[in-house]
Write a structure and sequence with these properties.
This protein has 327 residues and is α/β, with parallel strands linked by helices. Helix content is 43%, strand content 18%. It folds into two domains: 181 residues, Periplasmic binding protein-like II (D-Maltodextrin-Binding Protein, domain 2, 3-Layer(aba) Sandwich); 96 residues, 3-Layer(aba) Sandwich (D-Maltodextrin-Binding Protein, domain 2). The protein contains 13 helices and ten strands.
Length: 327
């Protein structure tokens, strides 16, 4: 009788688990932690690592449910962090200044260094063949105070024209800037390298120069985390960063699969992504570590953009609490 009763108790317990929402095995699996992640732009090879991680099942392996949201520039990502609509932001080095303006988020890891993935594009058939031909001309960027804004200014300062040797025109998305190139509204536009190769492929523009040839030290892309995530769910943030750099390692050894995902996300031809793959992977960080030389240039970039009228305090720019990340 004891054996019968025990078996009945076991069966009753199993039934209770099923009624509660699953089998005994499933009941032991914790619910994935959800994260809302904002991208400064959708058309960026480095930012598309988020999607590669999803397709490869990497986020799932870290028990994370990662939802990517595309914005139209750094400023909008910082607005999303301020509003609390996103937990993590994928943005640029200059955006590290926003914390000093009250944004409740801070850079927690470097995503990519020197801007090997950024290019300056002119219209197809343009008579501008060198940077010298851009003096006094209009250059299209995403938003004011963005990475593309600062890079456009480097053209002017690098040519010895000062900060106002070119006219910066914030135009938002890639399509708008390409259209402005075609209509002659602007003489050049700053783009992600993969975008630039796609623009060349469809015959709407030509790469004039690569910014990796102009800027030698820089944190082009960084990962921001909301203060609430850091304070209340630091282990979740740590898992996200571990998942991110596991994804980067995966991208280095699974080129074809990564290219397929990135091409789909960016709406470009796979051959175009394959062409930019070497430069993009060369700038991707393996562990998120910050470089002092790069940070010094980022601090200067903030001053160049007029985003802050005082020297930035490094404590308000980034934290090394979560890096380096060992994969």
């Amino acid at each position: 009788m004891t054996d019968v009763v025990s078996r009945r108790e076991v069966l009753a317990g199993a039934a209770a688990l099923v009624l509660a929402g699953g089998s005994p095995a499933l009941a032991q699996t914790p619910k994935p932690d959800s994260l809302q992640v904002g991208k400064a732009v959708f058309s960026s090879f480095p930012f598309a690592a988020l999607d590669v991680g999803n397709d490869a099942g990497i986020w799932k392996s870290f028990n994370l449910e990662v939802n990517g949201i595309a914005f139209k520039g750094d400023a909008q990502v910082q607005e999303g962090l301020t509003a609390g609509s996103i937990d993590i932001g994928l943005g640029s080095g200059p955006a590290m200044a926003y914390r000093s303006k009250g944004v409740p988020a801070i850079a927690v890891a470097v995503m990519a260094g020197r801007p090997l993935d950024m290019a300056l594009v002119v219209a197809k058939g343009s008579d501008i063949k060198t940077l010298a031909g851009l003096k006094g001309k209009r250059i299209g960027v995403t938003t004011a105070g963005s990475l593309t804004d600062w890079l456009a200014r480097q053209v002017s300062t690098g040519q010895g024209w000062g900060s106002d040797g070119v006219v910066i025109l914030p135009l938002g998305a890639m399509e708008t800037r390409v259209s402005a190139l075609g209509s002659g509204q602007i003489a050049a536009s700053v783009h992600d390298l993969t975008e630039a190769y796609e623009i060349e492929r469809v015959g709407k523009g030509t790469i004039l120069t690569l910014f990796g040839d102009i800027v030698k030290d820089f944190d082009t892309h960084v990962i921001f985390a909301h203060d609430n995530l850091i304070a209340q769910r630091p282990q979740v943030l740590q898992r996200f960063l571990k998942g991110w750099f596991t994804t980067v390692a995966y991208m280095r050894t699974h080129k074809d699969a990564s290219i397929k995902t990135i091409a789909r996300v960016m709406h470009v031809d796979e051959a175009v992504v394959a062409k930019s793959y070497p430069a993009d992977m060369a700038m991707m960080s393996n562990d998120g570590t910050f470089s002092q030389a790069a940070l010094d240039v980022v601090r200067k970039s903030v001053a160049d953009l007029g985003m802050y009228d005082q020297p930035l305090d490094p404590k308000n720019m980034y934290t090394t609490r979560f890096v380096p990340v060992k994969v």
